[in-house]
Amino acid sequence: MNERTGGSVNKVLSGIAVAGALGVAAAYPAVGASRFWTNWVLWFVFLAAIGLGCMFVVALEHTVESVWSVPLRRIPERLSGIAVWFLLPMGLVALLSIPVIFPWTWSSASGIPMIVKKEAWLNTPFFVIRVLVCLALWVFSYRMLVTGSFKQDETRDPMFTVKARWFSRIFLIIFALTLTTVGFDWISSLEPTWYSDMFGVYIFAGTFLAGLAATTLGAVYLLRRGRLKGITEDHLYNLGGYMFAFTVFWGYIGFAQYMLQWYGNMPEEVFWFKQRFTGGWLAVSIVLGVGHFFLPFLALISRSAKRNLTRLRWVALCILFFEFLDLYWMIFPTLGKGVVLGWPELAFAVFFISLVVLWSRKAMTKGADMPVGDPFLKEGMEFHL
Amino acid sequence: MPDAVSGVIALFSTAEELVDAIPEVRARGFESLEAFTPYPVHGLDKALKLKRSWLPALVMIMGGLGAVLGFLFEWWTSAVNYPLHIGGKPLNSWQAFVPVMFEVTVLFATFTAGLGMLFIFNKLPFFGNPILDSDAIKGITRDKFALMIQPVGGALDVDAASAALVSAGGSNVEVVMAKAHPPARGSWWVKTFLGILVACVVAGYGTSLAIKIYPTIKPMVEMEDQAKLDAQKADGFFKDGHGMQLPPEGTVPRGYMPILAKTPEEAGKTLFNPLPITAKVLARGRTLYDNHCAVCHGFLGRGKPLLDKFYQASPANLQSKTFRDVPDGYIYDVISKGKGAMPSYEADISSKDRWAIIHYVRALQRSQHAREEDLQ
């Protein structure tokens, strides 16, 4: 792809993004604050899944001191910039949604015993503090884990690798706590009487999958432009294997959460699934189970599939789409009017997808395509299964 | 059967030399090649043009079969052969079957992978490879890499093969002979195996027999052997040979009042409710009724079971005229001894509590058949 077509693609994307922004702006007066903010929160948690998922992929490599993934590390490093460039502003704006869509802030919720019991956690000041702490921790982690890696391209200082490995262990704790908080605060507390012990793990499974899928997409994007010289089928095989494994993990956690609540049949738990298994939501639930588990599972099960660029690309796109559908399935039934899908949702999708793609194309030029300063790069290039 | 040529083998000192030699040998017209290395060598399978094993496909098929069989088995056991009602859920609840389906899938897949590898692809019970009798094996298991040219359709030009291997850089060229195997029947290992089997059976039965003849020899004292009297069992301790004894004539166990009446009707004439009708007694009666009786007789005593859909018997309608008119003693007798499909509740509900339930049943009956003065 030459410079001119690249530039024109960017121009088209910018145009689409502007059109999407107009649609998003029009949605607020047209369909009301509650649907607008629900959409906003959905995109916030979806981008959190991709951005934090990518940062987790980076941290995981440092923590387990894996070498095969070093040549690919620049991709999740670049994409974890979403945490700074998207999550920070979006999270701050999303604070405006608190009194609109979160039932525990409404006067009608006062006195409901199950909400009263959670008041120590679910109150506006503490919620705002948690959001701010999470955002601050993500930006801090990005600086510790990623910024130094770009600097290492120039300095070739091996000490960064030592520091990153040290910090990545702390990041895993930050990641676990903040991601669970995101799940509890932005998704689960939309229905504050519900609870599930597995919810944090469920969110993690989807987040890691989204991070892996984004990494795979970035790798395919660069490989097709001939920019990742030395990446072999074996590297791709590992990425595909990771996606395959965590597809199964997601299916396991998702089904376990459903089956235990179905079996127990406790009214305070099971209403959550009942709501999603009636009317139009039943179709969404079935599509979600088939598309988030069976489709990638069968598409990636063979050895050759995990080495095939075309296959990996569409499976990664699939995983991202169904991860979005998963979050939509968790968040949107709280609007309580059956399946809500219309032009405002489309406008949000057009706006954020074009913006993220535009940003990612730019991000893919940041630094060298591989962490050239990493002392383990050569060893990682020589990786064989 | 005479000894046959298994192949011509040559040693190479590095893995690269071995991989490079393969196309050279192949160019001389030898297609059936086999390589032996001390560790896995990258690119070797490609150079040998080995086909991908079809074991993964077999594992996939058997795993799928396991899932289907697991589901069918669960469905048959819990919905067809022995319908089990659990928590009011449908008999054919796929959600509950999934864990079993998953386990059976894994079981079938792993067994297929493990046994398929051993028996189909590694050709068990074939225990030896002719290469084990060659000189080359000493190098292969240490630091040498070997290439073997195998006969195609039983025919191999040994001299041409040797020349091809030497020109490709091989050394220590050797012809590997497959020793003709004597028939399995009557061979030493079959005899040994059968001997061990017979010895095991003899020893096992002998030990079991010895313990029966000499009961004092107890290799293991199990918990069921205890020096105490067992209910419903014979025992030499008492003269009559019973482990369980009736109470002596004319006595009653402490805290237990037997019902002397032979029929509910007789009990209705001789037994009377000793409890006063107080709010406390009625509350106690209500708790016990709701816990023990309501599941079949219904919360209002109408004889409509809560598990209506599944339950085949028809419990008594306590609101019917018959049961409104029977005396308290009759109901007490039925609760204590059971009637028809209803079991005895003597062991579960104390005598006093049974009387409390009866007061509550009377209150229930009055609630549905109020007298005129109740309304004033």
Structure description:
- The complex is a heterodimer of chains A (385) and B (376).
- By secondary structure, chain A is mostly helical.
- Chain A is 75% helix and 0% strand.
- Chain A is built from 15 helices and no strands.
- Chain B has 376 residues and is an alpha+beta fold.
- Chain B folds into 2 domains: 1-181, no CATH class; 264-375, Cytochrome Bc1 Complex, Chain D, domain 2, CATH 1.10.760.
- Chain B contains 12 helices and 4 strands.
- A 4-stranded antiparallel beta sheet of chain B has the order 2-3-1-4.
- In chain B, α3 packs antiparallel against α4, α8 packs across α11 (328-337) and α9 (279-297) crosses α12 (351-368).
- Classes of the chains: A mainly alpha (385), B alpha+beta (376).
- The A-B interface holds A 255, 258-259, 262-263, 265, 301-303, 384 and B 42, 52, 56, 60, 87, 89, 95-96, 98-99.
List keywords for this structure.
heterodimer, A: 385 residues, mainly alpha, B: 376 residues, alpha+beta, Cytochrome Bc1 Complex, Chain D, domain 2, 2 domains, 12 helices, 46% helix
